[in-house]
Amino acid sequence: MGRAPGLLGPLPLQFNVYFVQDINAGLKDVAEIPEIQMPVSSLSKEELEDLITKLKKASNGLELHLKEQILSHQALQEALNDPKNGESAFKHLKQQASILGNMEKLHLLGPGRCFVEFGAGRGKLSHWVDIALQNAENVQFLLVERATARFKVDGKHKRKDSIFERLQVDIQHLCLNKVPILEEKKLPLVGIGKHLCGAATDLALRCLVESYTTCCDGENEEPVPKRSKSDKTELASNSSTDNERNEEDTLENSKPVAGIVIALCCHHRCDWTHYVGREFFKSVGLGPVEFHYYQRMSSWATCGMRESITKSSMNDEESEDQTNNTEEHDQAYSKTEGGSDTLQGLLTVEERKEIGCLCKLLIDHGRIEYLQQRGYKAALQYYTESAVSLENILLTAVPRQSWIPEPTA
Ligand SMILES: C[S@@+](CC[C@H](N)C(=O)[O-])C[C@H]1O[C@@H](n2cnc3c(N)ncnc32)[C@H](O)[C@@H]1O
């Protein structure tokens, strides 16, 4: 029976055209995942030592010290200088400014693109990208968020050259190819996110570089738009070498995803089934059991530092931000499993911190290898000071020119 227009509420989420059940979930290999997963606190001293030895061995050879790339962007200058902003708002602005600065450095802030913000919350990051691109033509924004967001800022944009659309869906089920505005214009995508927690990052990466890219291959009848002249002038003033620029110019025309810039968070919320770095883990002799513990132990990275982060006085809008706030996620976790376990006597705070950092690095390295294998030049860097956010790592990726797809069997 048909639905009488106007009589029923909004369409259930799974009936949206872009909803494809588990399209980005990754393959669940039931045989691989042990049924009972014990908490870290129940491990014996020997078991814990064994896990730490394996962790150190697997991280051997990885770049342990990430580059600092704490940047800013003109678009946020006025807001950053506004004394009316409270401490919390200021911290968010600093992070947003650095994310935009990093996007600019990678030449991703330009006309003729669709910015897909994953885990958008109120949509503030897209808001600032829109401000930064105020004179650019043909810009779209897709704000992906599974929760209903209050205090959204995406309804406030009136600029005629940008289109904002909110997709209320879990990234796990998002098929970008079926989003009507993407089908129409086929603009190159830039995937962005600020504090995209745990498994959501893996789902977003798979959404961009597997489900979207695979379906797009060979479908683009028209070449994607070239950069405008003004955009190229902007490039010339940037610090990249000519070679890098040429490389990226060519690439943008050959891949539907022009770039990825995601500030990571909450590694303890990762999930082996969704994790894109499973191949990397297996290649260094690790599997779902080790992943389970490392993901939990990753919260040790910040356990000694949380006390120094004080909650600032907030207005209503900021408190709303805080309900999604990373530090809150971490604090909730530390109370349950990561912090108050029985290992206190076994390891010093410093040792726990070092191990937690290694766990995060290992998980993130798997993501980098995944992107590299799919033709991207990917990197991790610090994008803000730890006093601003304890979750201060930014994952970036742009297509690599020399990439030749592996033949499919
Ligand atoms: C820590 S909050 C960050 C919100 C916002 N980006 C910011 O910086 O204020 C993470 C957001 O990602 C959303 N999220 C997490 N997992 C998701 C998923 N699988 N699909 C869609 N949204 C998700 C949450 O609902 C939440 O709004």
From TrEMBL:
Residues 218-252, 311-339 are annotated as: Disordered. Pfam families: TRM13. Keywords: Metal-binding, Methyltransferase, S-adenosyl-L-methionine, Transferase, tRNA processing, Zinc, Zinc-finger. Residues 94-397 form the Methyltransferase TRM13 domain. Its EC number is 2.1.1.225. One of its GO terms (biological process) is tRNA methylation. GO terms for molecular function: tRNA 2'-O-methyltransferase activity; zinc ion binding. Residues 223-234 have a biased composition (Basic and acidic residues). InterPro entries: Methyltransferase_TRM13 (IPR007871), Trm13 (IPR039044). It catalyses: adenosine(4) in tRNA(His) + S-adenosyl-L-methionine = 2'-O-methyladenosine(4) in tRNA(His) + S-adenosyl-L-homocysteine + H(+); cytidine(4) in tRNA(Pro) + S-adenosyl-L-methionine = 2'-O-methylcytidine(4) in tRNA(Pro) + S-adenosyl-L-homocysteine + H(+); cytidine(4) in tRNA(Gly)(GCC) + S-adenosyl-L-methionine = 2'-O-methylcytidine(4) in tRNA(Gly)(GCC) + S-adenosyl-L-homocysteine + H(+). Belongs to the methyltransferase TRM13 family. PANTHER family: TRNA:M(4)X MODIFICATION ENZYME TRM13 HOMOLOG (PTHR12998:SF0). tRNA methylase which 2'-O-methylates cytidine(4) in tRNA(Pro) and tRNA(Gly)(GCC), and adenosine(4) in tRNA(His). This is tRNA:m(4)X modification enzyme TRM13. It comes from Apteryx mantelli (North Island brown kiwi).
